Hints:
The strands form three sheets. A three-stranded antiparallel sheet has the order 4-3-5, with no helix packed on it. It has a three-stranded parallel sheet with strand order 6-7-8. Strands 1-2 form a two-stranded parallel sheet. The protein has five helices and eight strands; from the N terminus they run βαββββαβαβαβα. Helix 1 (9-12) links the parallel strand 1 (2-3) and strand 2 (19-20). The two termini are 18 Å apart. The chain folds into two domains: 3-63, no CATH class; 72-146, Rossmann fold. By secondary structure, it is an alpha/beta fold.
Amino acid sequence: MITQNVDNLHQEAGNTKVIEFHGNYKKLTCLTCEKQYSFEKEKIHNIPPLPQCQCGSILKPNVVLFGETPSLSAIDQSENAVASCEVILIIGTSAMVCPAANLPIIAKKYDAIMIEINTEPTQLTINLTDIFLQGNAGEILQIIERYL
Length: 148
């Protein structure tokens, strides 16, 4: 599973193989040495106003902020995953922000079947999507689950 969400909900739902394209707010990353730490909000009162790494540099939430690029590791893992998939589900995205918007194109290049679930058509719908299911993703996924 590749997600642009940073809320950890896929893991909390039991998914164990999650590529976090835009990071995860439950982790902090050192701006200098890139060491990662767990972020536990119940311990927030025990850390300085600006959390610091062991190296002395400032930590930031391990999420991609506007103007930043996802990690090369996340990009590589995601591109490899979609290049080898048989079916790709595109759910609830505008497909306008790169490099994530390139993933469906890569999957299609390798002949994946593309199923798109969205409230509105996207640029993928006309050019790449094999099956377009228009509506609320939660409702549509519940219907699909009944048939699995």
